[in-house]
Design goal:
InterPro entries: DUF112_TM. It comes from Streptomyces tagetis. Keywords: Membrane, Transmembrane, Transmembrane helix. The chain has 20 helices and two strands. By secondary structure, it is mainly alpha-helical. It has one domain. It has a two-stranded antiparallel ribbon with strand order 1-2. A hairpin with a 6-residue loop joins strand 1 and strand 2. Helix 4 packs parallel to helix 15 and helix 7 crosses helix 8. The longest helix has 40 residues. The chain is globular.
Length: 508
Amino acid sequence: MNALDSLLNGFGTALTPVNVLWAAVGVLLGTAIGVLPGIGPAMAVALLLPVTYGLDPVAAFIMFAGIYYGAMFGGSTTSILLNTPGESAAVVAAMEGHPMAKAGRGAQALAAAAIGHFTGGMVGTILLVALAPTVAHLAVDIGAPDYFAIMVLAFIAVTSVLGSSRIRGLASLLIGLTIGLVGLDQMTGQQRLTFGALQLADGVDVVIVAVGLFAIGEALWVAAHLRRRPADPIPVGRPWLGRGDVRRTWKPWLRGPFIGFPFGAIPAGGAEIPTFLSYVTEKRLSRHKDEWGKGAIEGVAGPESAASASAAGTLVSMLTLGLPTTAVAAVMLAAFQQYGIQPGPLLFDREPELVWGLIASLFVGMVLLLALNLPLAPVWAKLLRIPRPYLYAGIMFFAAIGAYAVGGEPIDLVILLVIGLIGFGMRRYGLPVLPAVIGVVLGPNAEQQMRRALQISDGAVTGLVNTPFAVTVYAVIALMLAAPGLRRLAGAVRGRRRESRREGGADA
């Protein structure tokens, strides 16, 4: 039986009234939970694991898939409207989405995100059906030097593209890398930057960092300027995408899945890297470069499409290899084991109804997510009518609840406040926030992959560049670093040619 026949059988399973109901419940729960800062899809699935003990495995996993996609969209809702990411994959959405919301275009940003999620999820799931065995095979061949090269690419890109200068981008990245060092050394078990506090041995959770830098930092910044500026509510604007918006977003919607899906499928992947790379790509390709940082709709459409496609990509490694590439996939793997099912190469033969019913339910969930959330975009945008003092007080309240929910430790609230003050200082001195979050997310993993590559090569630095893939990535990095200088050189050469022509014309 080929993949298409199996998928049609899966639709027969997923479209039964009971399973459609569970998919709708999952999408609604996921969106509602994703809107709460700090409570992402992984925690939502983990909290609901005990609830599903009495459910049929197919129904349980269809609901989990709905929660996953719904929580990713819910996280982007608070990122756009309140500058408060519900989870790490939604961090990039705040970069352009929140300025759009402050300019009265919150509904357009939410609509671009909803359609981006739908497009990315659809394309990503089609790629899952068509390419799962091939992508899984390629993922097995990627080694530590390749992972490290990809992460160095992300670091260089983040310091080159964001902010007013590379120095400030690098400073922000170093702040994030330093926060990422807190905790136990993964290779030796020694404590680093914990100052003797046992509660810091596990490190600082990336959700606390994201919420602190974005939400608390933004709230403190607004509070510091409320006396200078009137606390008027932010305008909501018209609740639909215009023709100009569609012309600017349809290409990012289609490009995003091809960036997000491969990264979701590889180990150490997830949505953080592809959402950022999509942001960088759209910024470089955009014809409206003056709008970036002030509310460019492409900066919402592309990353959100990439994030949704990466969610489909994570299922490739989990279903075919039993290898979870994200926290959500790890929780879902535990759920599989709870039902006595072991994901791996034989899963498609042993549990075809479950696997193809789950994959078909992703298509159903995408349609439900769009149908439920696109009409709700103006409703969500009305949150911005709340006067700013009450709005940001509420943001700080929910941010504190979300941070406490991550680990259940009072020290998490202290860490949240400290990181919020760092975020306030970064805004004061013009440092972009996203490089710091990228440093926290990727820093520990980059360190681990680098040390593994050096161990394999007995400490030889050449061990970091001993694969064709790594060499190719470093070549791309070299081009990125050289590009501004080459542009300036080309501009100078063109200027000299124009001057020489003028002088020649004057002599004639």
